[in-house]
Design brief:
Rossmann fold, Quinone Oxidoreductase, Chain A, domain 1, 31% helix, 6-stranded parallel β-sheet, 7-stranded mixed β-sheet, 2 domains, 10 helices, alpha/beta
């Protein structure tokens, strides 16, 4: 038997999510590796899935949770054996395939990544998809800057949605690399927290979230955007000549009310960052970089632990913008 969160939907009871206990034979038979989960986490997408605010879940019943870290119990995959420490992000887990907010998971071995040396399962989930996505953004910016000959500290880098998981990790990574980071947030009370992570300045998200001119004063040499909509459009419009903008989220909306002007008049490059289906080599590189570069004290400062039963309430909080940094879920408490 194992405990898990289970989402179900019916005409009579509607959409519901609750803690339950199931037999191991209920795990999906489409996976070839069974993992004992130690830690999971709550990301923005998990919030959407658990609350039903967006049609993230594609089949029912469903165990939510797009991340987990734990150890292999049984394996029919050549890469893995019992006892291996592993983690997982994406691949539709928690959407179309039972996910990580559970004490047990059965998944395809091709989806798993070895837990990097020196990183605990809890630390891996403190990073989670949010932090892994932030690393993918930073890697894209660094490739662009390398090709352009841009040096750290030569211009400001904007991070939107700064108080969330992606933003918090992105600030810590960029600041550690020597960049001048400007954090955009709707929570001015978090300014001290963001500066402790490495932000040099904190601006109100309202300066970016309203409709703006298609071409604005040049400011940013790079952007990590987890918000989308007008915020992303304004970030592009105020990017410097030859700058790079990474887009990885849609907290404000899926639309992009932008002009082509920044791209054809200033040579701005917009990189779409996908964390769900990223190839294995890129995943492994991102996790190795995180293990080597992310300050553990800053990671600890942005992380709070909750139990499995607390996850539904936390999901509502994260959608309401009331969660700072990262939430890790101890699935065994």
């Amino acid at each position: 038997m194992f405990k898990c969160l289970l989402i179900d939907k019916s005409d009579d009871a509607g959409y519901r999510c609750g803690l339950t206990e199931l037999d191991e034979d209920r795990l999906p038979d489409t996976g070839d590796v069974t993992v004992r989960v130690d830690w999971s986490t709550i990301n923005y997408k998990d919030g959407l899935a658990i609350t039903g605010r967006s049609p993230v879940v594609r089949s029912f019943p469903m165990v939510p949770g797009i991340d987990f870290a734990g150890s292999v119990v049984h394996s029919g995959h050549p890469r893995w054996k019992a006892g291996d420490a592993v983690l997982l992000n994406g691949f539709g887990v928690g959407e179309t395939h039972w996910g990580g907010l559970s004490q047990m998971a059965r998944v395809k071995g091709d989806w798993l990544v070895a837990l990097p040396t020196g990183l605990s399962a809890r630390e891996a989930m403190a990073i989670g998809t949010a932090g892994y996505t932030a690393m993918l953004c930073v890697m894209a910016l660094e490739r662009h800057w390398h090709d352009a000959g841009v040096q750290p500290g030569s211009g400001e880098v904007l991070v939107t949605g700064a108080g969330g998981g992606v933003g918090s990790v992105a600030i810590a990574l960029l600041a550690a690399a020597g960049h001048t980071v400007v954090a955009s947030t709707g929570r001015p009370q978090e300014a001290d927290y963001l500066k402790a992570l490495g932000a040099s300045d904190v601006i109100d998200r309202a300066s970016l979230s309203a409709p703006g001119k298609p071409l604005q004063k040049e400011r940013w040499m790079g952007v990590v955007d987890a918000v989308g909509s007008h915020t992303l459009a304004n970030a592009c419009a105020s990017a410097r000549y030859g700058a790079a903008v990474t887009a990885c989220g849609l907290a404000q909306g899926m639309d992009l009310p932008a002009s082509v002007a920044p791209f054809i008049l200033r040579g701005v490059t917009l990189y779409g960052i996908d964390s769900v289906m990223a190839p294995l080599a890129r995943r492994e590189a991102a996790w190795q970089q995180l293990a080597q570069r992310l300050d553990r004290s800053k990671l600890a400062a942005m992380t709070r632990s909750i139990g499995l039963a607390d996850a539904p309430a936390a999901a509502a909080d994260i959608l309401a913008g009331q969660v700072r940094g990262r939430l890790v879920v101890d699935v065994n408490s």
